[in-house]
Isochorismatase family protein
Amino acid sequence: MKALLIIDMQQGSFKPYTLRYDTFGVIDRINKLSEQFRKNGNLVIFIQHDGTRENCFLPGTEDWSLLPELIRGPEDIFVSKTTNNSFYKTDLQTILQRRGVKELIVTGCATDFCVDATIKSALTRDYFITVVSDGHTTADRPMVPAKQVIAYFNWIWSEMTPTQGMIKVESCHAILET
């Protein structure tokens, strides 16, 4: 079984929407993938950052809420996290194990923080990982534009040494074609 991870696509990270690179394109691609996952009986997991410790992204607030353009299904699973790593002190690993998930397709925000930390943690847990090359986003960083950050991390992930699982980076279009 496969699971689509949709990491931190929350309103507080997208104020304004132009803050993140290709916001509406990323949302559109995530929606296409999630539709296919639901249709095929695979899991769609939304991961939301709970920033209570930092006094931001407080559960139940507008900033904590998912972007309204993201399509949700009745069987979707929601996981709350408190650090960059979606596995750290969450139910994510238990959910995946109970459902027999061996393959993760990863999307979300922010490329260089929560997406990267989750990918690296999943790799050490021997998952087969596909990063959606055009399904994650971030903001411009000091001296590095977001588009370059995204390209750089896509390259890093494609060059990582696999564990018992593996890691690959593919476009949304390529994933939808398989």
Observations:
- The beta strands are 2-7, 43-49, 77-81, 103-109, 128-137, 166-170.
- The longest strand covers residues 128-137.
- The radius of gyration is 15 Å.
